[in-house]
What does this fold into?
Amino acid sequence: MTNFIRTIIAEDLKSNKHNGNVITRFPPEPNGYLHIGHAKAICLNFEISKENELGVCHLRFDDTNPLKEEVEYIDSIKEDVKWLGYDWKEHLYFSSDYFEQLFNYATELIKLGKAYVCNLSAEEMRDTRGTLKEPGKNSPYRDRSIQENLELFKRMQAGDFEEGECILRAKIDMSAPNLNMRDPAIYRIRKVEHPKTGNKWCVYPMYDFTHCLSDMIEGITHSLCSLEFEDHRPLYDWFLDELKTPCHPQQIEFARLNINYTVLSKRKLLELVNNSLVDGWDDPRMPSISGMRRRGITPTSIIDFCEKIGVTKKDSLIDMSTFESCIREDLEPSALRSFAVLRPLKVVIDNYPDDKVEELSGPNHPKKPEMGRRTIPFSKKVYIEQDDFMEDPPKKYFRLAPGKEVRLRYGYVIKCNEVIKNDQGEVIELRCSYDPQTLGGKTADGRKIKGIIHWVSKKHAIDAEVRLYDRLFNVPNPTKTEAGKHFTDYLNPDSLETLSSCKLEASLQNANIESRYQFERLGYFALDFVETTKEKPVFNRVVTLRDSWAKMKSS
Ligand code: ATP
Ligand code: MG
It folds into this structure.
């Protein structure tokens, strides 16, 4: 699908603006795991580069803030990008690889009289910055000589000063209407160990300075970023212009992805993880790539979704149901069908021989005979879903009830003759009879059986745990909080339901982590590859069969 960025690139190719090259990059800061918002940026950058013969997309870790970064995040980001199916080939870079060059460029700026060491405190900086209506005030250190600035900058790096004692600022214009141009900081002192450069550096470059120069060093042609950087573009261009760099990448902004009923911010997701409000970054309820992978969502679903929502310059909030329908569209044609009873109720068929087993059969996919069939063993005792029985049903209830008949899918019609309860009055077993002349979807006398339910033979059932997930938050926009509330106040307390005594059809003995399954009438499921054991499989519900939230809203 075309979009305004593809249009710009097509024009640039026509005019040979970047020598016919398209080189993009995905530049994550390794301070958390990737989420589906990042997937939008990943798809955009990698897909665009793939469309052009000479195109490549770099993976660059923007690791300039040693305080928040961890190797764990770097590893997870690489894994997630690969899992989505994208390949940065030999183009793996770190902003920290450029620390030496960046330091030299900063020195160059000082020599050009375009940067100075400033001793104002953070508070004084803020106070003299001005506002959107009022210009800022020049720092008293603004007119230091080039020589003095060179000396001081060297001493900053040598460790002669404490953190916060001074910073290096670009000398632009304290009355610029764009606040980003009011002598922004370009280097600050941080006396901490960096995961890659250790204790080599006492000064670390700021984002705006680092980003444009890293893009330039790598020969990036189109630097795609989210809209919040639009006001930073003049600064991006200023550094490259002042330094007369050999090339000048073009920054193009697009709207971030926002989805309702979740949060897409590493900081907020980290808070959920750190406060144990979820079970880690890969909790299947998380909008993180790792959470989605564990839940059973496929890269295809995510990429289709990113393609479908498109790329624009206008902020919007995408419906979670749009994403969910992409998942269904992806899984419907390929998921293997089977029976699973999540909340079992025992049914004994009194007129069926005690030790007999019949091998019934059902299609692996109702519309795709080429996907073959599965054997479904049937015997005297079966499980059905508790809510497929009602002792006192309303008129239009076509499932099982005392004296009523229902069809066991791909099997016989049974009739409920007796309801057995425990001391608390709960139904614990149904005594039924079966009609031997009802196989193949027919009845001998032509009577209509309206209800068809799924079931599992007790003797052949596989014990399993099944986890049902719902939306993580119960309001559409949890970050728009009312006064006195925090986004975590809107967490959905019912986002996880663990069912630990589920009964699965025997064919699921061969379930594997690559496949997806449709438990008939229930939804799409995948094996949890973290907690499944030999003794007990754990299945995650990837998505429901239908949009149950839409139904709730309209009822
Ligand atoms: P967060 O707010 O979650 O920390 P970020 O923008 O700080 O996100 P980065 O690691 O800096 O995270 O992002 C890497 C790239 O991914 C950037 O180019 C950024 O614009 C892009 N990106 C991040 N979040 C989104 C989103 N929700 N939609 C589209 N692109 C995004
Ligand atoms: Mg960031």
